[in-house]
Specification:
Chain B: Keywords: Iron, Membrane, Transmembrane, Transmembrane helix, Transport. The complex is a heterodimer of chains A (about 260) and B (about 200). In chain A, about 15% of the residues lie in helices and about 25% in strands. Chain A has seven helices and 13 strands. In chain B, about 80% of the residues lie in helices and about 0% in strands. Chain B contains ten helices and no strands. The chains are: A alpha+beta (about 260), B mainly alpha (about 200). Chains A and B meet through helix 1 of A and helix 5 of B.
């Protein structure tokens, strides 16, 4: 199902795109199972219509926002981003979405908010049993407010000009291209503005392996593997991993003065 | 006559049959039937085949302790050599497909990754076994030394199963079962060796 009126947006890379089949067939979406092809097989059970996002916490206008309202209010741009998974594979995906900053401006962020917490859908009735017990559901991710309002950070409602496939996080997901893929939470149901730092799911499960920031960084290794190279799908070529996934010029300022070995 | 005929049927049949999974894998690879990331499937399958053939080789030794049917001895060498061939295929898949044949990347992996170190150790332990699997080797080395050398299969098995533990992130029940099987086979081998040396004295 095609998305209407997608306009080209800024920051797009001209690298070769990962094919649609690979990007929709090789996914991590643990609610639907731990194997890469589980999401494509099981995510059809996800009901995405109707869908709304609950906005709460330190905002001027809390409450639910329906998908139709989001699509009517924010023009959909194409952003061709690199996606680097913490497991050392990567893709180039044309996302279709809008800046998270625009939504946050629309709901009005209060001055004492410092963090944004995202919560994914949670319905044990449609999760295959294999995924249960692996993580604490619902899946939670979080960004610092300045990361969340960075112009690179988008909420995507589609990819390749198509409505977001279920296995890729329909109907709406986060895309933060300079961080490992697990930060880009799928199928968002709730966005909360908070003063205190929330606890993301993977960070809670294994803080040594999955940092709060999870910035792509070839010089800081994962305890079980190094991060200096990555396998670009779908041709499978091994390439060098770039600092901040190649977005260093745009985002390095966010972390000025921080020791990235400590705040990984 | 009947037994020696059986021996060559088993020997040559196995030499061919053990190659079948590899041929299927190459066929599936070349015809795009390995899913969206074929290199990864190749890597996992070649590794699995090597492990399976290693288990079969070890298990055969155990079975022979109970069934002293001559032709069965002919099965050991094809199983052992094919274990090594699949292990080589696994290593080549890693080097040329997973690492893209880029030595700089491969060397970095060797330096930093435990599972790569274990994998290479396993391959190196099996190398002398494969090299001395030709007919002439036991005579050249002397049968006793040759037999001793081939005890290397046990350290190889332990290193290989450790490699499997690391790549399965210590989370696979199947790997636990395989480990128990290897330990059982090793224990039975040690027990048999002890009984034999007692009988001699």
């Amino acid at each position: 199902q095609s998305l209407p009126e997608v306009v080209p947006g800024p920051f797009s890379t001209d690298e070769a795109l990962t094919s649609f089949d690979v990007a929709t067939g090789y996914c991590n979406f643990f609610e639907f199972g731990p194997a890469k092809d589980d999401p494509a097989q099981h995510a059809h059970a996800l009901q995405t219509d109707p869908w709304s996002i609950e906005i709460d916490g330190l905002v001027d206008r809390p409450g639910p926002i329906a998908m139709e309202d989001l699509l009517a209010r924010f023009p959909i741009e194409e952003r061709i981003y690199r996606l680097r998974c913490v497991e050392a594979w990567s893709m180039v995906i044309p996302w279709n979405g809008f800046a998270l900053a625009d939504l946050l401006a629309h709901v009005g962020v209060k001055s004492d908010a410092r963090y944004v917490r995202f919560e994914a859908f949670d319905d044990t009735s449609i999760m295959p049993r294999a995924a249960q017990g692996l993580l604490d559901w619902p899946y939670v991710e979080a960004l610092r407010l300045d990361e969340a309002v960075h112009p690179l950070t988008i909420l995507a409602v589609g990819m390749y000009g198509e409505v977001m496939p279920n296995q890729n996080g329909a109907p709406i997901r986060l895309v933060v291209p300079w961080k490992y893929g697990f930060k880009s939470i799928k199928s968002i149901k709730r966005i909360s503005l908070l003063a205190e730092r929330p606890m993301p799911t993977w960070h809670e499960k294994s803080p040594r392996e999955y940092g709060f920031y999870a910035n792509v960084n070839p010089t800081v290794r994962h305890p079980r593997w190094h991060q200096a190279t990555e396998r670009r799908l779908h041709d499978g070529n091994r390439i060098r991993t770039e600092m901040f996934n190649g977005y260093e010029e745009l985002v390095a300022d966010l972390y000025a003065g921080m020791d990235l070995e400590t705040h990984y | 006559m009947q037994a020696s005929r059986m021996t060559s049927v088993i020997r040559w049949g196995l030499w061919g049959a053990c190659g079948v999974p590899g041929l299927f894998l190459i066929w599936h690879w070349q015809t795009g039937q390995l899913g969206v990331v074929p290199h990864e499937v190749m890597l996992h399958r070649t590794g699995r085949y090597a492990l399976l053939f290693l288990m079969a080789t070890l298990a055969l030794g155990f079975i022979q302790a109970f069934i002293s049917w001559r032709p069965l001895y002919a099965a050991r060498r094809p199983l052992g050599v094919w274990t090594f061939l699949y292990a080589c295929g696994h290593a080549m898949t890693w080097l040329f497909l997973d690492q893209g044949g880029i030595w700089e990347f491969a060397l970095a992996e060797m330096r930093e990754m435990l599972h790569v170190k274990l994998g290479i150790a396993g391959l190196l332990l099996m190398l002398p076994l494969a090299l001395t699997s030709v007919d002439i080797a036991p005579r050249l080395l002397g049968f006793k030394l040759w037999k001793k050398l081939h005890l290397l299969v046990w350290p190889a098995a332990i290193v290989v199963i450790a490699h499997t533990w690391v790549v399965s992130r210590f989370q696979s029940p199947l790997v636990v079962v395989l480990t128990l099987v290897i330990l059982f086979l090793l224990a039975s081998r040690l027990y048999a060796a002890r009984a034999q040396s007692k009988a001699k004295t």
